[in-house]
Design a protein that fits this description.
The structure holds two protein chains of two kinds.
Chain A lengths: L5 H11 L1 H20 L7 H26 L7 H17 L5 H25 L4 H20 L4 E2 L5 H12 L13 H27 L7 H24 L5 H19 L1 H11 L1 H6 L4 H27 L1 E2 L7 H11 L11 H20 L4 H25 L1
Antiparallel strand pairs in A: 1-2
Chain B lengths: L2 E12 L2 E12 L3 E5 L6 H9 L8 E6 L2 E2 L5 H6 L2 E4 L11 H5 L6 E2 L2 E2 L1 H14 L15 H14 L4 E5 L7 H16 L3 E5 L3 H7 L2 E6 L2 E7 L5 H9 L17 E11 L6 E11 L3 E6 L5 H8 L5 E9 L2 E3 L4 H6 L2 E4 L3 H5 L6 H6 L7 E2 L2 E2 L1 H14 L16 H14 L4 E5 L7 H16 L3 E5 L3 H7 L2 E6 L2 E7 L5 H8 L11
Parallel strand pairs in B: 3-10, 3-11, 6-9, 9-10, 15-22, 15-23, 18-21, 21-22
Antiparallel strand pairs in B: 1-2, 1-4, 4-5, 7-8, 11-12, 13-14, 13-16, 16-17, 19-20, 23-24
Helix pairs in contact in B: 4-5, 13-14
Classes of the chains: A mainly alpha, B alpha/beta.
Chain lengths: 398, 510
């Protein structure tokens, strides 16, 4: 391997990770197309920063959805439940005058309970997930109308101080340390920390792999890879550093993505989820308690849905009766575009997040172009079809 | 005699593996031609090339059928040339009836409407031909694996195949069913049908074949007429080395009782049919306990119900090392040190999309983790230990198990169960469908486990294996234990006597 050329390694890596590369390539292509069509307004730091904020709710839902689909299940209720949880938060602040912390905690609890309700029916009563969550899709759409009285609940009706700090979850940016600097210093430090953390992580993985005699890249290519990925991280932060800094909601998404990547790769629970999706019978005979794992997963999904609902209400500054409509489809599409197999057993959290970025890039770009809503739906539908088609094609080859 | 089929210099490559390396395979008209070789030797791949599963262009070499070069792009192309293949894994649709399955894709239609009377009439005839006394309207999911195999053969016959390929047809059949099958093959031969017969059961091969071709590592080792072979030469050609003793029997000294099952009665999950009927037996330290019987005798069900993985247990108790225990789930069983290796490794054993490491550690993740976080270093260390110990042939721990051969897949599952540190290891058909070399290694391993004090319970439908490895044999018939034999007194005839329902003292050798 020491003597293989860079191109061979890249070609090998592309062949091996064809789906991941296709996904990233598709994202870049979509960005390129929109940049040209919008006269490069799409690529401005301001728009990209907004894009990242807009992605937050879909990305949070997609993180959970990936794992749900990995186990061979589905959750059609996340849109309605997200809207409901967002409305619960708004009502608690407006009608009960609660401060943000108890509001958030109670909303999370509500999400957790709804997830437990789904888990109970799916895992223990063996009702298909499709039906259980379809029922909730309908029921919670009704419940939103019930608790909001059918009217938009604006956060301006809540006590001002509480409303402002709640809104920060969805809208605000990291504070600056030194106000006089022309760029966003805190975000810069965060960027440096992220890059260093990434380096340390890569080197640890490399050392571990070497210890067990697994294949590793030649050192010079390892460094090249780290350099390229560092550039990507820097560019990502750079966009936000030039604009207003890193938004809290983006930090939230990154934290959740890292946490769930860890859960899926390094915990017994995560390993069990992939095994259940890969072969439920073999998992059961290996002593895995399928019902309990699925139950816990749906509770986590409920929790993530509540987080998404909080971010959504905070960003929109209001709870509306239509909040979260079609969000379940965006989340499922994100997971699938990100390489999650509907057959179960396969999928990555990072893929789901990139899939979410694809979906919200489409929304954002087409809105910038002032494209008729009719075509927006059609284009999103076709892109989903195309993504799965590419996935099916590349899967067959490998 | 002319060749009805010639495959010349077939080369088929998969990423990183050359599965077929210039195989030449010639079959004469109207003969039964056995194709033997270890798992991974390339037999199944060769047949997939022949049947068009791997389309023309994905391999190199020539296929000549009835003197004409053929380029099959799809299975339907090879079917048109009269080639029918019956796979190792059954391909019947369980929810459909026998008649629907047999004529699936080949329905008796006029103007797009299925003629059911005609279908049933023809099916009845075909079923008679394969010795199955079942109604054509029987749902396939309700009949046993043995009967399903015969339905598969009837299906191939329905297509008027002139070249019939059988991939391990008898692997899942009982002795009498195998005999029926072999007779059917002889009858077909009379009718001029050419048969390619892939099997691991060498006595069977020697019984039925006219010509034998041996493959090893994707190459043809030899093609010769049956008369020039005996079992020893076959084995030598397959593995390229002499195996002097197929069953490495070593004297065991059975010790104290480790596990005792008392009055164990189990109904099927629907609670309708009694499948295990008041069974009591003991498992002792230092012995291999064989469970014999025909298919459907309730052996697998007995084992799985002890493991809390099947059926409704209505009575009975388990005593483990003198203490009465209750097993409510598979996890309980594993915690008590009881492990069960299933007969169906793809369905119940492996997660095919996961790698060797993840499959091996699957049942032991709790002991390899702290606070729910897996200690990957420990996981790699432990799985590597068992991969080495069991001599699993894999490029690395990161290889997906779907890319391993059957024998190596089986070793991965055995590794999974050994990693749980079992006190009682139940092996259900541990060597089914795997090659001679791997079989021998598994037998040796069983002996090693006995040395380490693990109790081994082996369910086997392979009589020589059952007799060759067990220290004590229990024979089941219709859910009841009909006979218990010690190694020195057991013979094939005695086991068969009990397995077919005899309950008195077995007769002397016939």
């Amino acid at each position: 391997m020491e003597n293989t050329s860079l191109w061979e390694i890249i070609a090998h890596s592309i062949r091996k990770n064809i789906r991941q590369y296709t996904m990233i390539f598709a994202l870049l292509e979509i960005w390129l197309v929109f940049s040209i069509l919008t006269g490069f307004i799409f690529l401005t730091p301001r728009n990209l920063s907004n894009l990242f904020v807009q992605t937050a709710t879909t990305a949070i839902l997609a993180i959970g959805m990936v794992l749900i689909i990995v186990t061979g299940n589905i959750d059609l209720s996340v849109g309605s439940v997200m809207g409901f949880c967002g409305a619960v938060a708004a009502i608690l602040m407006i009608r009960a005058g609660w401060s943000p912390l108890p509001t958030v905690l109670v909303t999370l609890l509500v999400g957790l309970l709804i997830g437990a309700w789904h888990g109970f029916w799916i895992a223990y009563q063996k009702v298909p997930a499709f039906i259980v969550t379809l029922a909730s899709y309908l029921a919670f759409r009704g419940a939103i109308i019930g608790i909001t009285g059918g009217q938009t609940q604006g956060l301006e009706m809540a006590p001002e101080a509480a409303a402002n700090s709640f809104k920060a979850i969805g809208q605000a940016y990291l504070p600056k340390i030194n106000e006089s600097l022309p760029f966003h210093d805190t975000s810069l430090y965060l960027m440096i920390a992220s890059v260093v953390a990434y380096w340390l992580f890569e080197m640890k993985v490399r050392r571990d792999r070497q210890k067990y005699g697994f294949h590793v890249l030649p050192m010079k290519y390892q460094l090249l890879k780290m350099f390229v990925i560092s550039l990507v991280i820097a560019a990502f932060y750079g966009i936000m550093i030039i604009y207003l800094g890193v938004p809290y909601s983006v930090i939230l998404v990154m934290t959740l993505a890292l946490l769930f990547t860890f859960i899926s790769g390094n915990t017994v629970f995560g390993r069990h989820l992939y095994a259940i999706g890969g072969n439920a019978e073999a998992s059961r005979l290996s002593g895995i308690n399928i019902a309990r794992n699925v139950m816990i997963l749906y509770m986590l999904m409920g929790l993530l849905t509540a987080i998404a609902g909080i971010v959504y209400t905070a960003r929109l500054n209001a709870a509306t009766t239509s909040a979260g409509q079609n969000a379940e489809l965006d989340a499922i599409a994100s997971a699938v575009i990100g390489g999650t197999s509907l057959m179960g057993g396969e999928g990555t959290i990072v893929g789901g997040v990139i899939g979410a970025l694809v979906m919200s890039s489409l929304d954002n770009g087409m809105s910038l172009m002032n494209l008729d809503i009719t075509f927006q739906y059609i284009v999103k539908g076709l892109i989903l079809l195309l993504a799965v088609w590419v996935d099916v094609k590349t899967r067959r080859k490998s | 005699m002319e060749y009805v089929l010639e495959m010349q210099n077939i080369v088929k490559e998969f990423p990183g593996v050359r599965a077929l390396d210039g195989v030449t395979f010639k079959v004469r008209k109207g003969e039964i031609h056995a194709l033997v070789g270890e798992n991974g030797a390339g037999k199944s791949t060769l047949m997939k090339v022949l049947s068009g599963v791997y389309p023309y262009g994905s391999y190199a070499g020539k296929i000549i059928v009835h003197g004409e070069e053929k380029k099959f792009h799809h299975i339907s192309d090879s079917e048109k040339s009269g080639i029918a293949i019956i796979y190792q894994e059954l391909t019947l649709i369980k929810q459909m009836t026998i008649a629907e399955n047999i004529y699936l894709g080949n329905e008796n239609v006029s103007q797009g409407i299925i003629n059911w009377n005609e279908t049933y009439r023809k099916t009845e005839k075909l079923l008679k031909q394969v010795g199955l006394c079942l109604s054509p309207a029987t749902i396939v999911g309700e009949i046993g694996v043995g009967a399903q195999q015969l339905v598969e053969i009837a299906k191939a016959l329905s297509k008027n195949a002139s070249i019939l390929i059988l991939d391990e047809p008898t692997a899942a059949l009982t002795e009498s069913e195998s005999e029926t099958l072999l007779n059917i093959l002889r009858q077909l031969k009379q009718q001029g049908v050419t048969c390619i017969f892939i099997s691991h059961r060498l006595p069977e091969v020697l019984e039925i074949a006219d010509t034998i071709t041996v493959l090893r590592d994707g190459k043809t080792v030899v093609t010769d007429i049956r008369q020039n072979f005996d079992e020893n030469r076959l084995i030598c050609n397959m593995v390229g080395r002499e195996i002097t003793n197929v069953y490495p029997r070593v004297p065991h000294h059975s010790g104290e009782v480790i596990m005792e099952i008392r009055n164990w009665t189990v109904y099927d999950p629907a609670g309708e049919k009694k499948v295990v009927d008041n069974v009591s037996f003991t498992v002792r330290r230092g012995e291999i306990l064989g469970l014999g019987g025909l298919m459907g005798a309730g052996r697998t069900e007995l084992a799985m119900s002890i493991f809390a993985a099947w059926g409704k247990v209505v009575s009975g108790e388990i005593i483990l090392e003198g203490k009465k225990i209750t097993i409510r789930s598979e996890q309980d069983a594993i915690n008590y040190g009881i492990s069960y290796l299933s007969e169906d490794r793809k369905r119940y054993g492996l997660v095919l999309g996961m790698d060797v490491r993840e499959n091996t550690s699957l049942a032991s993740l709790r002991s390899l983790s702290r606070l729910g976080v897996i200690n990957k270093n420990e996981e790699i260390k432990q799985t590597q230990y068992y991969v080495n110990k069991l001599k699993v042939k894999t490029p690395s721990l990161e290889q997906e198990v779907r890319n391993l051969s059957g024998g190596n897949q089986q070793k991965v599952i055995i590794g999974k169960w050994l990693l749980t540190k079992p006190r009682v290891l139940i092996l259900d058909e541990p060597t089914r469908g795997i090659d001679v070399g791997a079989k021998y290694e598994i037998y040796t391993l069983m002996n090693a486990l006995i040395e380490e004090g693990v109790c081994v319970v082996m369910i086997s439908s392979d009589l020589p294996e059952l007799l060759g490895m067990s220290d004590r044999i229990l024979v089941l018939h219709k859910g009841r234990i009909t006979g218990e034999l010690n190694a020195h007194e057991a013979t094939q005839e005695k086991v068969m006597y009990y397995a077919t329902g005899g309950e008195d003292i077995a007769p002397k050798v016939c």
